[in-house]
Amino acid sequence: MRLRHSAVRAAVALVAAAALSAALSACGSSDAPPAYVALGDSYSSGLGAERYTEESGACLRSPQSYVHQLGRKLTSFRACTGSTTGGVLDLQLGPFPRNTQLVTITVGGNDAGFFAVVATCLLRPAPACDERIGEAERYARRELPARLGRVYAAIRRRAPDATVVVAGYPRLIARGPWCGAFGEVDDREQRRLNEASDLLAAVIAAEVRRHRGFRFVDMRETFDGHEACADTPWINASTNPGIHSFHPNISGYAAYARVIGRSL
């Protein structure tokens, strides 16, 4: 009888252990490595650094992006060239790993039409440049904060315990002679474009401060002296083909990785 009771107790213990193991697996074991999810636009995907992976298609994700140069084990690389805040919400925010501890994102420039602004200033007369910059600045002040807020809130719902690093954009063009393969940007247009970059950074930083566990990484000081047309540029000037124009080169993405890494 004692032997039978012992066998029953052992069987019950095995069943309980199996159930506990299954429950831990379903909830995510504490031993699982922390997950890193990378979101955002072309500044996150690595446009300008080249060597784009075939499977990334039109998203043009590069193994030389700051996401890879950061040195963290990457779980999910979802950033896509051309993304707006709406694109992130619609296409990049599928289920996150339960143990997501780090999220990085750069987004907002496409919402404000920033690269259309640069193209206007390159290829059209100064009054058109001024008008287009003014439109982008008004949008950044009035519309962009709410759009960013929706993205940040959605990230927090999916990754309640993660550190979320929001990387900003640098000033794009060094003051001085224009060096691009096409177009022309004079001194006044350079100044106005950089003022618009300052506004965009301020808008993004202000919205980041409203969200718990979010950190804004301001890239402007790091890129001072390394803008397009500087002696040692970390940003591509107008290129032919123009796809890489006004995006960081490999050195620029390495600078992003250093600054983001210091913020963690």
Keywords for this entry:
264 residues, alpha/beta, Rossmann fold, 10 helices, disordered N terminus
Low-confidence stretches: 1-29
Radius of gyration: 23 Å
Q: What strand line-up does the widest sheet have?
A: 2-1-3-4-5
Distance between the termini: 61 Å
Report the mean per-residue pLDDT as an integer: 89
User: What's the name of the CATH homologous superfamily of the largest domain?
Assistant: SGNH hydrolase
The CATH architecture of the largest domain can be named as 3-Layer(aba) Sandwich
| Distinct helical segment count | 10
CATH fold annotation of the largest domain: Rossmann fold
For this structure, what is the CATH class of the largest domain? Alpha Beta
The percent range for strand residues is 5-15%
Care to count the β-strands? 5
Structural class: alpha/beta
Fraction in helix:
40-55%
How many separate domains make up the residues? 2
Instruction: Write the H/E string, N to C.
Output: HEHHEHEHHHEHEHH
